[in-house]
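To whoever is covering the structure queue this week,

Two jobs came back overnight. Logging them here so there's a record in the thread.

Job A:
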Amino acid sequence: MHLHHLVYNARRPLFLWNLMIRTSARDGLFTETLEIYSSMSKFGVCGSNFTFPLILKACGKLGLLRDGTKVHAHTLLMGFDNDLFVQTALIHMYGKCSNLAASRQIFDEMPVKSLISWNSMISTYCNYSLIKESFKLLKQMQVLGLQPSLSTFVSIVSGCSSSGSAIWHDLLIHCCGIKLGLDSDLHLSNSIMSMYVQRGNINAALSIFYSMAEKSVVSWTTIISWYVDRGDVAKGFYIFNQMRREEVGLDSVVFIHLTSGCLQVGRVSIVSSVHALILKTGCNYEEPIQNSLISMYAKCGDLISAQRVFDVGEKKSVVLWTSMIGGYVYSGHPSEALNLFKNLLTTSIRPNRVTLATVLSACANLGALSMGEEVEGYIKLNGMESDLRLQTALIHMYCKCGSIMRAKEIFDRVSNKDLAVCSSMINGYAIHGRGKEALNLFLNMQKEEGIKPDAVVFTTVLSACSHSGFVEDGLKYFHIMQRDYGLEPTIEHYSCLVDLLGRAGYLNLALKTIQQMPLHAQKAQVWAPLLSACRTHHNIQLGEFVAKKLFAMEPQTTGNYILLANTYTSVGKWTDAVAMRRLINERGMVKEAGWSQIDVNDTVCSLPFGNQLRHIIDPLSFMQSLKI
């Protein structure tokens, strides 16, 4: 039955109205529940202590405080101010509608309180993460001789998990559950185990896990998520294999955690195995799974499989489109990302903020300035120009596309600058060789905006110093990063420092810096800038030493051999240069041709470098082919 049936029969007895209200509330149709109650009131039918708890539940679910207050007034007029069920529903409703004071007032004024009333008030406090107040009520219950129920403990455990309360709260609630014999309940055990996992106490969680006589898919997923989220993917898959041997039913939540693990590992074989299992269980049509699969395949470089997953999606949401566009951007295929975005615009689906930020990243990588300007126009047209994430993406795009002044204009308009937007502008100054502006902004960011820098910002600051030749400033900020902010240098920081010293000609100091680094940081990414500096400053002896290091680390990287050959060429050692290039051919390595990209009539065209240009015989006919 639906609402229109009631309109034509106003003489229905109360129990039929209650039946309609209960059915709509049970099905989650809370707006319809309130509409039925409104019609019922218009026809002069008065509610009962069965009606009002359902109506109050609907108000709480929809967060309608004003309507809930009106229903509260109806209960008073109808004489239900002392009814246990109605008063308990009022506690719950006001708690859901963010009026904690009203909830507590009703609770305190109740002449008789049931266990459900106590649970409702405790649950309300837990929803607000007020754990101390929850424990006070728990203690009062026990003083009055009321034993907490399973529902009581589940509410408090949930509150402890989300509030960051003291560890002794966790232990106390766990011990109380054991004392009352509730620790054997599967739901409570899962809740306590999840609480310990969120606290980082994996030993306590595992103790509960292995002592459980019965484990559900939630139990297994909780432990798997712990290992995967902390990067121990192998252990996560080991637990998953144990779960398979127990023949526990699988759900989409398990697969989301597994796909997250695959993203960290980045191996196509593992991704394919997980995908096959997803197909077998029939979870492949769920959108979160499809998004995870696309991300997995894209990170592994298998864009064909990612595109297949995208293509089989029957009802593609904007999230799925964004995942596929992001997959192309992540894999270094910005042109394909922009083409897919153009296809999206031909559908009825509208891009959201995440989509637009992803597309702007593609424009930045491709240097597609005109496309980026069109995206900015779309952002303004749809009233999203004040979105901080999009402002940051626009600044990055304009900087990468060579329009530093346009980026500055957007940056100046940002009213609530954060670390990301400042970092993006500093990086823009750095890549444009504007070291002074970058350092000034870095200082103003801390003094005027009160923003604390992180490791990423210090990387851009060191890069700015490197490109502008500010050796003293670079060394100063490298030490400040560690001394004042407690940030341990990463490979990126060391690479910037070596590049800074090498560009300035301090080759021996750059070499000493590398040799004094931790062993895990002495990778090709750090040695390569020094080899480039040896070429610039014509230091053959050191260049050969560095090249040997790089050959051992990356024996198949053609660029290292070419860089050494160019180093020989810079001092006129033509024979050694030719020998080095011959070595590339003897080892079967192939030098990829370099390409330059230009934006012509909203189309990004690629042009080859160097000798590749001989294939373009007639420049005039080539320009005509581009319709210039």
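Job B:
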Amino acid sequence: MISKEVKINLKNANSKVILNEIFDIDNLPKLWKYLQKVEKIDSISYIAEFKVFMRFRFLMKREISEYSVVHSGVMKFPKASFTFSVNVIPLRDESLDMIVRGDYQGPLERLAGSPMQSFLNNFVEKFSNKIHFQTFENFTTLINEGIEQSKNYDGKIKISVDECEAFFENGKIVEITCGRIKDDDAMKELSSKKIYNAIIDYL
């Protein structure tokens, strides 16, 4: 088995929101190098097809806990296994360390070290570019930031605070959700928070 690891420090980061982003398989095509296709099976299982030297088609399962996300998969023929894990460690200065690890066992294993390191480095780079961390002192500044950022952005912007997500497009709020609640109730829930350690995601 070959194993590689990358560690980065993230400022003003919310571990729950970060892990939810990485748990979501819809984000994987933007974050995983060599990934050709994702096919969802159920709430935890999916097929991930990679092309590295040869084509790999893994039956994957995903798990999320308070401080980690794990995507692990197997392929029957040729026999192979792949695990991608992310662990977060909250620090006293309100930042967190994110440790990204990849493990592979199977065909061409001796050649897999360099592609795995490239895979992890690419993930960290893409993840850092895809989202930005920022702290807002109040609800108004958060909403104004989303409106201003979306005026000149060709796409949607999502600002996540804990379980709440606010979506902006063309200088307007288009949707707010907090877990299962939406619209005005979600707006009240989001506005009741005191400090906003947020992730700004450019979709």
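Note for Job B: Helices lie at 15-23, 28-31, 113-130, 139-151, 183-191.

Please reply-all if you pick these up so we don't duplicate work.
Q.
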